[in-house]
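Researcher: We're reviewing a set of sequences before deciding which ones to prioritize for further study. For each one, I'd like a predicted 3D structure that I can look through quickly. This is FAD-dependent oxidoreductase. If possible, include the structure in token form so it fits the rest of the review sheet.
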Amino acid sequence: MSTVARPTRLPTTWDREVDIVVVGYGGSGATAAFSAAEAGAEVLVLEKGETGGGNSACIAGSLLVTSVDDEESLTYLDWMCGGQTDEGVLKAYLDGLKDLADFQSRLGFDLKPDPRPFRADGFFPEYPGAPGSDAFLGVSYIAAPGGAALYESIARLAEGAGAKVEYSTPVVQLIQHPDSGEVLGVVAETPDGSRISVKARQGTILATGGFEFNEEMRRQYLTHCPILFLGSPNLTGDGITLAQQAGAKLWHMSSAAGPLYWGLEVEPGRVYVTYDFMKMASFGHSAPVFKDAGSVIWVDKQGRRFHDETTETGTVHHGYGNREKWFAMDVEVPEFVHVPAYVIFDEKARAAGAVMTTLNSRTPAWSEDNLAELDKGWIIQADTLEELAVKCRIPTIPGASRGGHLDAEQLVATVRQWNDDCARGTDSSQGREIFLTPLDTGPYYAVGPLYPTFVNTHGGPKHDPDQRVLDHADVPIPRLYAVGECGSMWGPYYNSMGDIAEFIISGRNAARHAVQEGPWDAM
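Model: Here's the predicted structure for FAD-dependent oxidoreductase, in token form for your review sheet.
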């Protein structure tokens, strides 16, 4: 029996009445809103931010996954999810893949003339050694740019179909029937601070994303190591908390894609990261700071190199391959050996190009000459490496790192070894094979402290194949749905572009089921 406290009485009056309330307006919320509105439902989207988009601002919008053999793909997905995700949910995902071409053909982008499944090991499939992986490939139906373009096209369809959107209006409570637990509507806070009750006659869809910017949840569910995330700072686990208050069971709370980068958070929600390298898309390889200079290395808090800075993204499987090394522990203290890290570079690299980048299309670009960031104090400058080491302060974080600064003698030794290796043409420390340029032209620079940076979380309320949120007995909570990263199907592993497919499939499935529900106030 649930121990969740429910309201003892319902609102005597409702400030708003609609068929479907969608909580959150990222990719999955926009898809759900469009699908429900197109089916004739009166839809209201309540978004806590000043704009929508969520994590959709950080995606490569034209790439998707596809299945060429559903039986084999089911085996692969079950392996990727570690057996944690119900088979029915995985089958619903595979069924939904079949409709993606038709859905994307409506988004207003140029269509690829002959889209065919393709293989690119390390991406499609992400884990080519896993059982069933040969059936799980990549596909591209549209010539869409990345970033927010895909989300914006779906949002236009949703609003064109009649969905109404209210921004700066976070949902703070679900309204449940005191006896049955049926979700009848929501309480939301308006921009002027007042609270309104909104009746949802047919259903409420949680599309609030994950908990990337909720530090307490990150520390409790993921790791006590300081970590960062790309994407929207509005993703603070609101939908997870709302679902918990309604009696939901959670799943996949330790699941996150990454770490792929080392990141610097210059203000809440504004994160810049190191470059990732991907030959097939020329990521990293074409960055001027590398191709025109190359005198860039990473060091850990000991002042030592610990990783090939030009590692191909496809070899680390959305960062999973980085975890053992990046989160290595000194068990005698205990603390993390390599966290925080610093990017070290010289004047050649400073003048060549931006030393950091971002995948969030709504984050201003890092300047090409790095001078704006130097003026803001985001880049540390010194005439000598010894002076630079002292300026690279290490914060005290319980259980993670003891305070201090980089060891000057060790940093000098590290750079000396790097320069000697560059002269020999062989990186004896980390095996880096490209951009072997001596770091020998002052002044010298650093960016840091940097922390392992992930793309997104996957945990949240457990759901069934129709996206209905389940309680602790695996019984659907009536009229409550969760979509996208708010309780994603992905478990311990993840396949590239799987989230894009999921936000479309889950949004459509939730809307399809919700609009078939009879209005509760007509019963």
